[in-house]
Structure to design on (276 residues):
């Protein structure tokens, strides 16, 4: 099990603090947030010296660098170029994956075509950098559900491109998350996980994104991910805690770690029993 935390949870704190308490909470790895206005623990302008410091900080803590999340509107030219710079810095850090959403607008064909073109450009840039680009299915954006994800993977056949799966996004638009995993299993290379009230369109407050406190069928999701043989990282991504005091942020990470760790352990045992 490769279970990590997106540092956006620690958006109100520096990377040193995030690394220390992600490690303390029992996780094996970290996803660096490179999200302007939310958390920029990896900047698109980071120097080689900055990158060396990041790598040493993470390695000294015994954590792995799983991914970078560089959420932005990729339909804006300067943001597209910023994302390419993040790709280059991720590659220098030895980070294998960067995840970004499609931007655009759901069920708007013109926007969807523009998003697919931008994704194609980024897939090429990721491949050139020697990393992979995990397109995040995202509520409200062009690529937001199982159908649009399958369309994307059919139209953009680039080996660097894969999908980032997050049950809270596909579930809120009416897709069954478990069925979605089955349909997309050949393309999922990265996974975000959290809870929320899945019947509501808005993501819940951070305390209800803690794994086990909302209505996302996390047990079924984890069982399915294990069943399909997913071996990539699963990263806790909780937003909205930037102004929370540090003890609350750490409690969010730790409680989620306990819940998710148990789900993954039970899922593995269940799969082993079936095989036996």
């Amino acid at each position: 099990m490769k279970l990590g935390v997106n540092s956006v949870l620690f958006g109100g704190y520096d990377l040193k603090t995030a690394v220390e308490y992600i490690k303390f909470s029992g996780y094996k790895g970290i996803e660096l947030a490179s999200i302007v206005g939310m958390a920029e623990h990896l900047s698109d302008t980071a120097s080689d010296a900055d990158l060396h410091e990041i790598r040493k900080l993470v390695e000294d803590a015994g954590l792995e660098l799983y991914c970078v999340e560089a959420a932005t509107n990729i339909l804006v030219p300067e943001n597209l170029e910023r994302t390419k710079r993040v790709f280059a810095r991720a590659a220098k850090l030895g980070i294998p994956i960067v995840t970004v959403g499609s931007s655009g607008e759901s069920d708007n064909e013109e926007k969807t075509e523009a998003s697919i073109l931008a994704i194609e450009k980024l897939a090429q840039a990721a491949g050139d950098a020697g990393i992979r680009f995990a397109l995040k299915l995202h509520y409200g954006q062009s690529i937001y559900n199982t159908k649009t994800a399958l369309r994307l993977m059919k139209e953009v056949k680039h080996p660097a491109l894969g999908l980032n799966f997050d049950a809270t996004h596909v579930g809120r638009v009416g897709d069954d998350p478990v069925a979605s995993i089955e349909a997309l299993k050949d393309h999922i290379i990265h996974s975000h996980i959290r809870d929320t009230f899945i019947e509501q369109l808005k993501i819940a407050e951070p305390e209800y994104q803690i794994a086990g406190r909302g209505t996302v069928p996390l047990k079924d999701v984890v069982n399915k991910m294990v069943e399909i043989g997913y071996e990539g990282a699963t990263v806790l991504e909780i937003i909205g805690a930037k102004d929370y005091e540090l003890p609350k942020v750490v409690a969010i990470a730790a409680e989620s770690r306990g819940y998710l760790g148990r789900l993954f352990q039970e899922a593995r045992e269940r799969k082993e029993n079936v095989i036996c």
Observations:
- The chain has a mean pLDDT of 97.
- The CA atoms of residues 102 and 115 lie 6 Å apart.
- Strands lie at 2-6, 29-35, 39-40, 64-69, 97-101, 132-136, 161-166, 188-193, 233-236.
